[in-house]
Write a structure and sequence with these properties.
Layout: H1 58-61, E1 75-79, H2 80-88, E2 95-96, H3 98-103, E3 112-116, E4 126-129, E5 131-132, H4 134-142, E6 146-149
Parallel strand pairs: 1-3, 2-4, 3-5, 4-6
């Protein structure tokens, strides 16, 4: 043991921080380290997010633009080559429903599904989902399958 590695016994030193505003006898009473007067000394003061001292805040200086349609329907796209992969892996044989797509994590249980025409389909399929692109519908029906909307 040398002077450079001396330290107090475990648990003997407690550093719990200043106890502010607990009377004059504590030395931290009175203004409780908040100074005199002003907005920051008052009870209940909390700086608002984005407050810039009265200067016009950034989020109000920047111009607004665009439009969000609250009635927009978002579709999850599933391409024909993904359906062909499921056929190749013997996961589906003849019918594709929403339940099959959910089981194989191509869609969520609350999603709307749209079949897209990217890729090539080589087997006859009966597909029942919410929407189809024109090319996807044509590719499915060309092989003798059906494209049924829910």
């Amino acid at each position: 043991m040398t002077l450079n590695n001396l330290q107090p016994a475990e648990g003997s030193v407690k550093n719990q921080g200043k106890r502010i505003g607990r009377g004059q006898g504590s030395g931290k009473g009175g203004t409780a380290t908040k100074g005199h007067k002003g907005q920051k000394s008052r009870s209940g003061y909390s700086k608002k997010i984005g407050f810039e001292g009265g200067q016009m805040p950034l989020q109000r200086r920047v111009p607004k633009f665009g439009f969000k349609n609250i009635n927009r329907k978002e579709y999850v796209g599933v391409n024909l080559h993904k359906l062909q992969e499921l056929i190749d892996n013997n996961i589906i044989t003849d019918t594709v429903t929403l339940d099959v797509l959910i089981e194989n994590r191509l869609a969520g249980k609350n999603d709307l599904v749209k079949i897209l025409g990217n890729g090539e389909l080589k087997a006859k399929l009966d597909v029942k989902v919410h929407k189809f692109t024109a090319t996807a519908k044509a590719a499915i029906e060309k092989l003798g399958g059906t494209a049924e909307t829910l």
